[in-house]
Amino acid sequence: MAGEDLPVMPVDHPLTFFKPFNEFEGTGKEIGYPLLRDQGNSAYLRDTGDPKSSEGGQLEWGYYEEKEPRMCHPRDILEKEEARLSPSQRDLELEEVIEPLERAMELTPVLAELGYDEKYSFNGLLQVTADGGPSIGESSNVRGLWYGVSVWVKDGPGTGKVIADWMTDGRTEFDHSSIDVARAYPFQCEEKYIHDRCYESAFKIYNPPVHNREPYTAARGKFRSPFWERENELGGYFMEIAGWERAHGYASNEHLLEEYGDKVPVRKAEWDSRHFFRVSNAEHLKMSEDVGMINLSHFAIIDVTGPDAEKLMEYTCVAKVGGDTPIGKGVYTHFLDHVGGVRADLTVLRLGEQHYRVIDGGDAGHRDLVWLKRMAQDKGFDAQVTNETQNYGCLGVWGPNARAVLEK
Question: Distance between CA 393 and CA 296 in Å, rounded?
Answer without folding.
Answer: 7
